[in-house]
Known about the structure:
Layout lengths: L2 E4 L10 H21 L4 E4 L2 H5 L8 H5 L28
Parallel strand pairs: 1-2
Amino acid sequence: MHTVVHLAADITGGWNWERMHRFNIGGTYNVFEASKQNDVRRIIFASSGGTMLGYEMENPYTEIVGADYDKIPGTWTMITDDMPFRPIHLGYV
């Protein structure tokens, strides 16, 4: 096998470190370990949480996440790929 695409994650509601560690972190580790054992040359990993994490604490994303649509301004700065990484992002691994 040449490439593995890893998109899986536990997205059940709420923040629960045990579930996050077991399924998301542990599951990702398992994907990498199985890939290593089977001589996979490339792993493609994507995470929507990793691209948005942290922005939900800022206007207007707080309002969007909270479905408080009356407080969302008519225009706002969009998140773009050239914005600086936040400390929570790993960038390239």
